[in-house]
Amino acid sequence: MSRYTAITDADLDAMLEAIGVASTQELFDRQIPQAVRLGRPLALPDGRGEQEVYEHLRELASRNTSAEDELSFLGAGMYDHYVPALIDMLTERSEFLTPYTPYQPEISQGGLQVMFEYQTAISELTALPVANASVYEGPSAVAAAGYLAKLHNSRRRFVVSAGLHPHSIETLRTYAHGYGMEVVEVPLREGVTDPGAWAQAIDADTSAAIFAQPNVYGAVEDAAALSEATKAVGNPVVIAQVDPITLGILAPPGECGVDVAVGEGQPLGNRLDFGGPSFGFFAAREEYLRRMPGRIAGETTDVDGRRGFVLTLQTREQHIRREKATSNICTAQALNALGGVVYLTWLGRRGIVELGELLLARTHYARETLSALDGIEPLHSQPVIREFAVRLDANVAAVKRRCAAEGVNPGVDLQKLTGREEDRGGLLVAITEQRSRADIDRLVDVLGAAVAAEREMVLA
Amino acid sequence: MTPVTDLELPLQRERARTIFQKGAPGRRAFLCPELDVPRIGSDELLPERFRRGEPPRLSEVSEPEIVRHYVGLSKRNFDLDSGFYPLGSCTMKHNPRLHERAAALPGHSRLHPLQDPERAQGALELMWNLQEALTEISGLPHVSLQPSAGSHGELAGVLLTRAFHEDRREGGRVPNKVLTPDTAHGTNPATVTMAGLEVVKVATDEHGGVDIEDLRAKADADVACLMLTNPNTLGLFDPNIVEIAEIVHGVGATLYYDGANLNAVMGLSRPGDMGFDIVHFNLHKSFTQPHGGGGPGSGPIAVSDRVAPFLPVPTVSRGENGSFDLDYGRGQVGSKSIGRLRGFQGNYGCFVRAYAYICSLGGDGLKDASETAVLNANYLLARLKEAGVAEYLPLAYGELCMHEFVLSGGPMKKELKIKTLDLAKRLLDFGFHPPTVYFPLLVEEALMVEPTETETRETLDAFAEAIAQILREAATDGPEVAQNAPYTTPVRRLDEVAAAKHPLIRQVL
Amino acid sequence: MADASYPDELLYHPEHDWARIDPDDPALATFGITWYAQDALGEVVFFEAPEVGATLTRGEPYAEVESVKAVSDVVAPLSGEIVEVNDALESDPAPINEDPYGEGWLVKVRMSDPAEHETLMDAASYTATLAG
């Protein structure tokens, strides 16, 4: 017996007799050739009791500086939003935590209805009529949307804005190499996608045109104009990666001519968890319904006329269409999507707007006050909603070290994130509702002092 | 047991209403923090033309309503904590709650993925230790924790194979065929197509393993890879694995291991020792990451030396002074990595849980888990070979099994006029989750059973008895009882045809 | 359609598709899927008609028929250009199951090489392949 198993000696005797073998070893001796038997114990530390394992995990946690331990302005795709306690309670419930995919719908109505509600919430948020039950996360959702475009129009290139998150661009490149598509990047101008270069890049062989809203530099793009520009030439599939938290106040992709909207769902009721697990959302126009990847829950009735839900359109998925599948995605991020829909329900119709306005005002305040300092200037002056970029007249890593000593993490080193030479000195600062005015004022003090100290050191 | 047909159970009486159909205008749960910064005219912050007109029509409900609604939904779900869940190939083993407690520690759960590595050493060490453990379990030295799920790991594997061949051929013709057995899980062919390669099926022989002659005939210079799981989806360990590896390597192709069935062989046989080049793990199967109703999962991969240069970035590296870092390989001259497969570094929350499990069990514990999984499966199989069951649900292939087995409902359908589907639905009335049905496609009316090692003998006996009872019921009372099952679930059989014909996938408002 | 049937006047392609040559115009043919195909698929939930004017090549897929459990390619038994499609099936594909040789017809094609019909099987030969 080991942890979590229950076979006693008495059980073992009875079981071996029923099977008709002399020992458990015989089951392996008869089925696995000696040549591939390991023949020695696994070279792993011995197993430990719960108390010791917990202590070990706690010790490891103590050597991480989390948002609990410092005043954090880190963003760039994942954000330290407040997760209400009822989400923890619901996602820990056995009935949501431990079942598998709802293959037997009669006993999975809870999970299926959650998917249905989640799909509704995402559809509302994006103003697009069809949404799936979630995909893994943001960047791979962009790659999946690209695959949908390829299946739809069989063309051969993707045009992407340089404002798309670098992880999305890189992931798209990895996937695109697999299914044989060219990826062309359009530069930014003054912080947003260069409209002239964008229009020029799109041609009759463009399968999809992809941009981010807001973009990775925090700037609000003119989504409607970007979409419009694609209609003139060849009508590629317009794909936008959007930040869901902003959709209370920002014009939604469905109203801006976007065909497929995807994004990182972490800001909606999910933890940071050092980058995962979270979920990606995926919504589209009606005509793409049968090409959507992933799971979809649909409404129907049972034999007695009761309203119920089932996984539907499964023929598109991996297990039936096999090599003609629209994707290979097997798992919906069901538990994370549950967190997402509960969060959106908790925010409610008014809350999501109020939250957006709060972030808008505080982000603007943060950008204004930081930019007023010497050695700090905004990277661009486009409208921002919850994140913005500044350029420091100092080495970003050195500045960050000084801030860390004061318990402040001022943001993401932009050049490290994008790898672009022109982003040298850049810092990406994210605001959530957990960063109050007092917190922002502290950031201004600490960052200002750090930059000043570095500049002085360099001059000296 | 007389099925209850004219008495509605409370859960059945309760009609489904979505959260969008509850609440009332003005109700709310969230209280927004106060606007504590200067209020500037809102147009200056965001031009009107970028603003949303009508807000999204989310619900307006109070917190108690939210709790009651979702707790109520949870009661319409069957789950592993509540009952036996023998889904073949899913490894529904117990999910220890210690893991939830550990994963919830703020040092893990509130850690931002872009935190500087010097201040995330605990996390990086955890990932490193997990990598080391997976190396030891698989017998392959290089691990990437990045892929998000089994199918994601498969995509990584196929892309790695492609990169490996492109690198070797250097502009010459690159092999583009991937061989998969006809018993393979559905994800495999879809993955191959997404990676721009072509699927070629390999036949299964009469013992349930790869047909060696068919493999020999199809293995040529055009073959990039053979994707296999061992034991396979019939629950059988392929005794010819060494020969298979030789044939595949002989034509310069890679051998890929789908780790869905790893639960049968931990500490007993290692894919690396069997000759595989690439292995993917499902942390949500053998390593107890809870299934969560379908996800999240995590699908790390381990590879051989020759495939290592192509691994996705970032990887976790360890410096000479013992500190850990994330290695992006970007800008490094000659980096052959296939690049990123997703944002950041992977599903860390899943790593914490899997690592806690490995720490709890240790090497001996993992081996014991696999031994017990195989013991439990063979015992349940033995019970189902008894009279009254075996003649209707014979074992499709072989005599013994590994951690799962596949029965065929063909004779049951012929003699008793009930299909595997009907048997599954009737099992719901007995409080069991049915096994996997109609997979693998190779077996007529397939029923794939995987009990796992965390079940007691009493549970296995009760399950075998339930199957026997359902068959007896069909034999004496006729097929209608099973054909119209289930009777006691919150909803009864649902019209899946209507759902596909007229898809309704959101609440109409 | 409850019972298997394979009308004698039709020609059959091994991948379970039939062709009816128009008695009044030997260059015009109607295509559909056989009883065997609809039975294997189960109840059809979706059929998206291809475009009028599209070119078909004998033996190549030109459309898909989708049921709850599978999607199947529909293969062109003969080459030609589509001149008419059965649009009614998009809103209600039931005729594909209920009347696969009548109301369940899929497309009408002007053949590019009428002699190709010699490559197809008659009802007897086709049903023989099903038995094997």
Q: Notable features of this structure?
A:
heterotrimer; A: 460 residues; alpha/beta; Aspartate Aminotransferase, domain 1; Aspartate Aminotransferase, domain 2; 3 domains; four-stranded antiparallel beta sheet; globular; B: 509 residues; seven-stranded mixed beta sheet; three-stranded antiparallel beta sheet; 17 helices
Could you characterize what this model shows?
The complex is a heterotrimer of chains A (460), B (509) and C (132). Chain A has helices at residues 9-19, 24-29, 50-62, 85-92, 94-97, 109-126, 138-153, 166-179, 195-201, 223-231, 318-321, 334-371, 396-405, 414-418, 437-459; strands at 71-72, 130-131, 157-161, 182-186, 188-189, 192-193, 206-213, 237-242, 260-264, 280-284, 297-301, 307-311, 376-378, 387-392, 408-409, 412-413, 426-430. Chain A is of the alpha/beta class and 460 residues long. Chain A folds into three domains: 9-50, no CATH class; 71-81 and 350-459, Aspartate Aminotransferase, domain 1, CATH 3.90.1150; 85-342, 3-Layer(aba) Sandwich (Aspartate Aminotransferase, domain 2), CATH 3.40.640.10. Chain A has a seven-stranded mixed beta sheet with strand order 2-10-9-8-7-3-4, with helices on both faces. A four-stranded antiparallel beta sheet of chain A has the order 13-14-17-16. Chain A has a two-stranded parallel ribbon with strand order 1-15. The termini of chain A are far apart. The model of chain A has no long low-confidence stretch (mean pLDDT 95). Chain B has 509 residues and is an alpha/beta fold. Helices cover 36% and strands 9% of the residues of chain B. In chain B, the strands form three sheets. In chain B, strands 1-7-6-5-4-2-3 form a seven-stranded mixed beta sheet, with helices on both faces. In chain B, α7 crosses α8 (187-194) and α12 packs across α15. Chain B is globular. Chain C is built from four helices and nine strands. Chain C has helices spanning 35-41, 88-91, 94-98, 123-131; strands at residues 11-13, 17-21, 28-33, 44-47, 55-56, 61-67, 71-75, 80-85, 107-111. Chain C has a six-stranded antiparallel beta sheet with strand order 1-2-3-9-8-5. Chain C has a three-stranded antiparallel beta sheet with strand order 4-6-7. Chains in contact: A-B, A-C, B-C. At the A-B interface, α1, α2, α3, α4 and α5 of A face α3, α4, α5, α6 and α7 of B.
